[in-house]
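Session log. Operator J.P. requested a structure for one protein chain; no other inputs attached. Running the standard single-chain path with C-alpha cell output.
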Amino acid sequence: MRNSARIWEYVEARKGPLIALSDAVWAVPELNFGEFRSVALHDAALEQAGFRVTRDVAGLPTAIMGEAGDGGPVIAFLGEYDALPGLSQEAGAMAHRPLSGDGNGHACGHNLLGSASLLAAVALKDWLAETGMPGRVRYYGCPAEEGGAGKGFMVRAGVFDDVDVAISWHPFAFATVFPPAALANMRMDFTFTGRSAHAAAAPHLGRSALDAAELMNVGVNYLREHMLPSSRIHYAYQDAGGTAPNVVQSRVVIRYTVRAAELDDMLALAARVRKVAEGAALMTETRMDCAVVSGMANLLPNPPLEAAMQANLERLGPPPFDSADRAFAREMQETFTPEDIVAAFRQVGLPPTSDMTLCDVVLPYPSPAGPILLGSTDVGDVSWTVPTVQALGATCAIGTALHSWQMTAQGKSSVAHKGMVHVAKVMAATAVDVLSDPELLARARRDHAARLAECPYVSPMPPDLVPPVMRQSS
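Structure written below.
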C-alpha cells in the first residue's frame, strides 16, 4: 500500500508534460511505419526525462527505446502512437467535422497509449532512484500496431529477449485488466492476374481477375459456416482492376484479414482461405499470388500479473471524473445509437443504465460476462516472448466505438487526460509490485514457461517478410 501511494505521487508529479505529449501526438496523426513526428516527440520526452535512448530499434526508423536504472529485473512499458486513415475529427466536437489535411485520426487512442506508458516509465524511474532498488525500466515506442505488426518485427529481432515483464494498456470506456482474448490474425494480399479483352467485341478472349476475386469472396462466405464461432474473416479491395465496365479486368488485388482465438487455429483457417483463392483462380483460368502482409499472435495469459494489476486497480478505485466530465460524456453519447450504449454495458457484464456516462467502477476480473473480445494486437507476440500484462483505461464516454470519429473527438478531452493518468498509476504500481516481490516475478515466469512448454511460439509472419518501412524525406 505504501509503495502504491508513493508511485502514484510520482505519476501525479510528472503528468503535465506527458499529457502535453499526448495532445501533441494527437495533432500529428501518422500511419503504420510513418510515425516520424510522433516518434520525434517521444524521443524528446525521453531525453528530457533523463533516459538512455536507443533509436531505430530493430531497424525500424519509428521505433525507439529509453532505459533507466541498473541491475535487477527489466520492466518494459510498451507504447504506441500510430493513427488510422480517414478518421480525422475536430477535438471536442459533437458532430462529425473532419479536419483538412491527410484525413488521419487517433481513433484508437494511441496518442494516449504511448504517453501513459511513458508516464508510468518516468514515475518508475523516479521511484528506482529514490529507493535505490536494483532494476531497470524501459519504454519501448512501438510503430505500426494498426495492422502493421510492428512489435512482431521487434520480437523477431530479439529486442525483448532480456525483458523480465512487459506492461501495457489500451484506451477503452471501462477500467479493468485487459483480458487475454485478443485474436491472432494474418493479413494477406491475393493478386489475381488474368487477360484483358474488349468486353463486348471479344469477351471470350478475356480472363477476368475481377471474377476471380468475386468468386473468392463467395467461397470464403461459404467457409464461414465451417469455422469456429470466435474466428473472423474480413476483406477490402486494394485494386479493383479499373473503372471501365467494357474492359475485362486483368489484375485485381484483394486483402484478407483472418482471425482466430488461438494461433494454430488462425494458421489453419488462413490455409483454407488460400485454398479458396486457388479454386477461384482455377475456375477463371487466372493466376493467383498470395503475399502475407503482416501477422499477430493471440495474447498469452499471465494470471499472477493479472491478479497484481487488478489489486492495484481496486486499491486506486475508478478514475476521478467530475460533473463537467460527465456532462461532456452525456453530450457525446447523444451522437451514439441506443444500441451502441447497451452493447457497451453488455460487453463488460453490467446492466445498461442511463445514469452512468463514464466509468465510475472498477470492473471485476475476470469479467462475469466472459472475455471482452477486442480484436487483435501485436502485443500478443510480445506476450509469447516475455510475461505480459495489460490494462484497459477508461478514457471515453460509455458507448464510444473504437475506430470512430467520436473516439478521435475525445482524444484531447479532460476525460482522456484523467483516464491516461489513472491507468499510468495502475501500470506503475504493478511494476513496483514485480520489483518489490521476487515471488510474484517467479510465479509470472513459471506460468509463462509452462504455457510455452505446452504450446511453443510460432511467428505468424514468414521469416522472409520485410517490414514496409518508410524513410523520412529530407
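Operator note: The mean pLDDT is 95.
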